[in-house]
Design goal:
Layout: H1 3-37, H2 47-70
Helix pairs in contact: 1-2
Length: about 80
Amino acid sequence: MTVFNLRWALMVLCLLIFVGSFAALLLASWQHHRAVKQGLDNFHDELWVEIAWTLAPCIIVLLLVWPTARLFWTPLH
C-alpha cells in the first residue's frame, strides 16, 4: 500500500466516523425534541438550541480534521 492510498484510507475512515457521529447526534437531538413535544421532558423549549448542540461538535471535528484533509490535495513529491 502506498502512502497516497494510506492517506485516502484514513480520510475515508475519518469521514465515516464523522458521518456516524453526526447522524447519532442528530438522531438523539430529534428524538429528544419529539419527547419534549409529548411532554415527557422539559430540557429545551427551542429547537435552535438543540441544533446548536448538535452542530458545535461537528464543526469542532471538521476544524481538527482540516489540516489532515489538506494533505490529500497537495501533490506528492
